Amino acid sequence: MNYAAPVWLPGGNLQTIWPALYARRVNGPALSFRRERWTTPDSDFIDVDWLQDAPGNTLLVLFHGLEGSSASHYAQSFADFARTRGLAFAVPHFRGCSGELNLGPRAYHSGDFEEVGWILARLRQKHKGPILAVGVSLGGNALLRWAEEMGADAAHVVDAVASVSSPVDLTASGWAIGQGFNRLVYTRMFLNTMKPKALKKLAQHPGLFNAKALLAAQDLYAFDNVFTAPLHGFKNTDTYWARASAKPHLHRIRIPALVVNARNDPFVPASSLPRQQDVGPCVTLWQPAHGGHVGFAHGRPPGHVRAMPDAVGGWLISHLSTPKTA
After folding, report:
1. pLDDT value for 123
2. Phi and psi at residue 308, in whole multiples of 5°?
3. In sequence order, which residues have a C-beta less than 8 Å from that of residue 301 and are 6 or more positions away?
4. Which CATH number among 1.10.357.10, 3.40.50.720, 3.30.70.100, 3.40.50.1820 corresponds to the domain 12-169+245-318?
5. What are the CA-CA distances from residue 319 to residues 42, 148, 215, 322 (Å)?
6. Catalytic site residue from 109, 293, 298, 304
């Protein structure tokens, strides 16, 4: 990916924050989604948003990041890309991220490859044409973990996968987001929505975790130790981050996979990124010097965020096993 940040937007933090708040998300008319609710095998639900008037033969699926949704700037820009290229487009929401609290005593996490697998299998049954999948940040790590676990069998479900700004080394990213400016801005932003959701989950399921310990959590490490790790079968945060990280298993992927990370991402340290010797022949690494965390703004102020979806989506389309209408 030959990305160069605009001169008016210097540094990883500005390249992260500005695109999320101010950059244009779509080039065409406003987007419209229709929602489907799916019952999960454990009698919970997830909501899937489908781009309206986009009945393409090829389906592009987007797995969102931490506390993301179909309204996230990157989801909107990928939807605009899909519309431009004649693709069907869907955003499955991780549990509790569609605007309504899920029912069960769990939420979602960075290594949630079983949930990703169930979603993709259901999409495979529903959609008869090719499927491409992209995951952003947390969703990208979970998608890569699914591809790693599936090995060659992943090709029966999707043609290719991509991750964007994903913390494939969760320990390194967890440490980075808990320091300095990152702690003051990004950690606070995430905890401001995650803590209230967790407390609502406790009201649903009394005794699920220690409310006092959760309220005392000042970083994601402490939050995950109280909530995310135990609710999803991990002993503690250290175990969760180690087992959920995609980086140690990238060599197991057997379908075309693209891993995109800006080297100035504020909370995915460049030193933690995979090198070519860490991955197998099916994995392509794009590591531009700039872009921030899911930023990649382009053009004159206020800029737009279509450059990254165009590049990543184009790469995915180029790896369709039999090229379709896109």
Report:
1. 98
2. -70, -50
3. 6, 8
4. 3.40.50.1820
5. 34, 18, 46, 8
6. 293
Give the pLDDT mean for 1-27: 96
Rounded to whole angstroms, what are the CA distances from 248 to 81, 108, 173, 207, 279?
31, 21, 15, 35, 9
- Between CA 289 and CA 275 the distance in angstroms is 15
The catalytic position among 265, 298, 304, 310 is 265
Q: What is the full DSSP assignment across 298-320?
A: BSSTT-BS-HHHHHHHHHHHHT-
Which pLDDT band holds residue 324 (cuts at 50, 70, 90)? very low
Catalytic residue among 77, 137, 173, 245: 137
Tell me the average pLDDT across 253-267. Answer: 98
- Give residue 223's identity as a one-letter amino acid code: F
Q: Is the dihedral of CA 85, 257, 145, 14 positive or negative?
A: negative
Active site residue 265: yes
Q: Where are the domains of the chain?
A: 12-169+245-318, 170-244
Largest CA distance in the chain: 55
